[in-house]
Amino acid sequence: MTVMTDIEHPPGAGPMTVRDLEGMPEDGRRHELIDGVLVVSPAPGFRHQKVVLLLSFALESARPPDLEVLTAPFAVHSGDSVELQPDVLVGRAEDFTDTDLPAPPVLAVEVLSPSTAIHDLNTKKAAYERLGVPSYWVIDPVAPAITVFEVDSDGCYQQVAKAAGAESYEALRPFPVRLVPDELLGGRLAG
């Protein structure tokens, strides 16, 4: 279950900050901060991790040399009140530090799980949009599908593509790559 809370933060101390996250326990959960509110998600399951692995491999194999592909947990920071950890991210090589990405990635990808789906499709999508992330992909590993959102001229996400099952998605942004949702499960479609 995804929990949005600031319970661990002393009452009356104001919103949490990125510095507050440094003191969080290494408990196998993902700790993110959106507008000063702590968001805690459980460790992902098998299907989720399989999609992350195969997607990151496909992106890494196709990426141009000026971009980098990383998987969670790797922090994307914006100011002191936002720290996100996309399941997969693509960023400009020059923007990375050894510990984080203090600039918007060019692509953020979230893989849905029962405990994070509503959060990924709403809260995190809105946060990535506010950060100016040009492309946001959401992948459903249960009914394998990829939904693609891109920023329009007004800075708002619009769904520009969706591929399911054996359909292919021919991405042009942030670089050309062909993806087939069924293949992101590595042949594990049962259960």
Automatic annotation (TrEMBL):
Residues 21-175 form the Putative restriction endonuclease domain. It comes from the Bacteria. Keywords: Endonuclease, Hydrolase, Nuclease. Pfam families: Uma2. GO terms for molecular function: endonuclease activity. This is Uma2 family endonuclease.
